[in-house]
Amino acid sequence: MPDISTRADLEVLLRHFYGRAFADPVLEPAFETLAVIGVEDHLPVMCDFWETVLLRTGDYRGSAFAVHRALHGRHGFTALHFDRWVELWTSSVEDLFDGDVARRATREAAKIARAMHRRLLEPAGPQTTGVPSRFS
Length: 136
Prior knowledge:
The protein is mostly helical. The protein has a single domain (7-123), classed as Globin-like (Orthogonal Bundle), CATH 1.10.490. The chain is built from six helices and no strands. The model is unreliable at 125-133 (pLDDT under 50).
């Protein structure tokens, strides 16, 4: 399998991941708006984000945290949501790619999920969902 090396690779990966997230019972509610409006407008932004993270382009200018804070307000994310996101992202990467950048994509996703989890959930105190989490 090839490694992730281009924006086109990231687009393939993101389409694969979103297809799975839209059908996932844990993540689907958080992705419902994107599923309804479609990914075409969102995809360039996410390609910019992952190009910046993985390929060091510096193209992403948004605020991923602000978007997720708004989503958290509507959906009440828990550690389970972050765990599942990382699982689906990791398996999506592994379905399509292999190499140093692909491995970095899974490591960076886990770091991003931990940071989002910490910033969104910990200010309100420790979460006691009863569900074991790699982020707790």
